[in-house]
Amino acid sequence: MNNVVKCHIKKGDTVIVIAGDDKGKSGKVLQILPQSGRALVEGLNFVKKHMTKTEDNPQGGVVDIEAPIAISNLKVSK
Hints:
The chain is an all-beta fold and 78 residues long. It contains no helices and seven strands.
């Protein structure tokens, strides 16, 4: 049995966060993750990720990246 969540949100929709730390903020959906029931929204839910030095990132250090948000915490904005 698969755990795919049926969702009311599509890639490219503008959504409003209705619960959590980013409540009231809005952004554009970049990606839907149906297996985990989450969506990646532009400019919301930033987390800190520690990056090692690489050829692409010679400085390394701590970088802010967007993390997925639960689809149940999102509402399509009109």
